[in-house]
């Protein structure tokens, strides 16, 4: 029986290995992590991450050919194929701080693999890593090989949170990069055979190592660029009276452009977009490509601008101050159908409002109070380090109250803002909400999920990203 071990039981490792176990019942799959709490959660009825369809997949295979364990070295030693899905946070100090990826955890994993291995291994990069990481890992393994042969493959993930299981079941493509040597090609074929259990062969793309590594960064950079592009247009739409929804619909009808990732919003979030672009910028700078680096920097600048613009719009609309005012925050996750808050725009929006002394009442159907408190008290990039290195008992953030009901969040609020496009927010009883809010009652829709005209009929003053401004907002100019 082929044995697969995945180091790292997070958003990538857990779902990916669960689907491999489901689709390949003849393969034994072990997911290992040093976090006792995380592994205990994977072995319980309350999985550590929320992803539609994940529970069903895990429960079908767990205990049969899918195992979650803290016995890292044991399973690594026994495995034929080792996926490495550890954190690659942005460096916070030293060379490349604020841009370069910190490969500390990757290097530790490579050294541990070298220490415990007793037979030849295929080591697969599953984390998003900077170009040439495979070469560095290869050097560590070969210089500590003790006669064992290692082949390094790059197999980047292209999952979208909220649809990860469907993305795994029916991927646009599976990318496998390896060495152009007989041993490298043999390793590529071995991994290709795993995916071929359910993925059509024409969707399995084989490349060299560097192309595979760069393709992941490029894909995320292109997607983030589209969001920043439409968000830049949303500011112009508000200034001119155009409707960004109509503009993006017209633009998206062009088959060369397409309609996906053209929804204006308060900004992009998630674990990859900003981190991967920063990584790309650093690589460009290291290769003397200053103009290319500056191009990608602008994508992040526009994203930060959009979040700042949203906060400034809220403050200016509410008589230029939110000090002492209750503001309801509906949605904290970076997108619907996930509990993931990594780099969510909600963090910056909430911190911006707290900076003006607002009182926040936050509701999200999938994000815990502990997670929200941790996110609002952590330094930037700390989220991407292993849980045991993050603040264990985050300080309660004054002026923040986390509730489990949208109506409780909005009761007696001066304004409410929607920061995640959860479907339930479209069907709330806004008349009931209006009746229980302070007047004038403001709605700031950062995801364009509500019918602004219907809310205006109820009596709300509504701001929707990229939509024509109503008279009140025009009279309250915003300095972005």
Automatic annotation (TrEMBL):
GO terms for biological process, alphabetical: glycosaminoglycan biosynthetic process; UDP-glucuronate biosynthetic process
List of residues binding NAD(+): 8-13, 33, 38, 86-90, 127-128, 161, 272-275, 342
GO MF: NAD binding; UDP-glucose 6-dehydrogenase activity
Stretches assigned to the UDP-glucose/GDP-mannose dehydrogenase C-terminal domain: 328-452
GO cellular component term, pick one: nucleus
Keywords on record: NAD, Oxidoreductase
Record-listed E.C. numbers: 1.1.1.22
NCBIfam families: NDP-sugDHase
Protein name stated in the entry: UDP-glucose 6-dehydrogenase
Organism: Nicotiana attenuata (Coyote tobacco)
Lineage: Eukaryota, Viridiplantae, Streptophyta, Embryophyta, Tracheophyta
Name of the gene: UGD5
């Amino acid at each position: 029986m082929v044995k697969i071990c995945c180091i790292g039981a997070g958003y990538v490792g857990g779902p990916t290995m669960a689907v491999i176990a489901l689709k390949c019942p003849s393969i034994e799959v072990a997911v290992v992590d040093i976090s006792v709490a995380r592994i205990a959660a994977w072995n319980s009825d309350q999985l550590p991450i929320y992803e539609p369809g994940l529970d069903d997949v895990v429960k079908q295979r767990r205990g049969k050919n899918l195992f979650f364990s803290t016995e890292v070295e044991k399973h690594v030693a026994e495995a034929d194929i080792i996926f490495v899905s550890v954190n690659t946070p942005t460096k916070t100090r030293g060379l490349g701080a604020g841009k370069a990826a910190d490969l500390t955890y990757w290097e530790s994993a490579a050294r541990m693999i070298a220490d415990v291995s007793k037979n030849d291994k295929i080591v697969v990069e599953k984390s998003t890593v900077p170009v040439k990481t495979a070469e560095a890992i290869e050097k560590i393994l070969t210089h500590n090989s003790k006669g064992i042969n290692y082949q390094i493959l790059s197999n980047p993930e292209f999952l979208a949170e909220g649809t990860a299981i469907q993305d795994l079941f029916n991927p646009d493509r599976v990318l496998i990069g390896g060495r152009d040597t007989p041993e490298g090609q043999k390793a590529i074929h071995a991994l290709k055979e795993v995916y071929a259990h359910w993925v059509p062969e024409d969707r399995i793309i084989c490349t060299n190592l560097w192309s595979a590594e760069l393709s992941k960064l490029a894909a995320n950079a292109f997607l983030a660029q589209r969001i920043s592009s439409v968000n830049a247009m949303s500011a112009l739409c508000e200034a001119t009276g155009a409707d960004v929804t109509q503009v993006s619909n017209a633009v998206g009808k062009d088959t060369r452009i397409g309609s996906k990732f053209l929804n204006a919003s308060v900004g992009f979030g998630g674990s990859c977009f900003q981190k991967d672009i920063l990584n790309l910028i650093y690589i460009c700078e290291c290769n003397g490509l200053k103009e290319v680096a500056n191009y990608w920097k602008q994508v992040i600048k526009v994203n930060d601008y959009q979040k700042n613009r949203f906060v400034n719009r809220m403050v200016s609309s509410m008589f230029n101050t939110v000090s002492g005012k209750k503001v309801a925050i509906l949605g904290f996750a970076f997108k619907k159908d996930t509990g993931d808050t990594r780099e969510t725009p909600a963090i910056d929006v909430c911190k911006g409002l707290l900076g003006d002394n607002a009182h926040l009442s936050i509701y999200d159907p999938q994000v815990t109070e502990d997670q929200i408190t941790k996110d609002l008290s952590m330094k930037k990039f700390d989220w991407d380090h292993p849980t045991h290195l993050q603040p264990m008992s985050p300080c309660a953030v004054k002026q923040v109250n986390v509730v489990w009901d949208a109506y409780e969040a909005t009761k007696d609020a001066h304004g409410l803002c929607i920061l995640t496009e959860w479907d339930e927010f479209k069907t709330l009883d806004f008349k009931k909400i209006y009746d229980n809010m302070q007047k004038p009652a403001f709605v700031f829709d950062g995801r364009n999920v509500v019918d602004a005209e219907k809310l205006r009929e109820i009596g709300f003053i509504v701001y929707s990203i990229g939509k024509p401004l109503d008279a009140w907002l025009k009279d309250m100019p915003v300095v972005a």
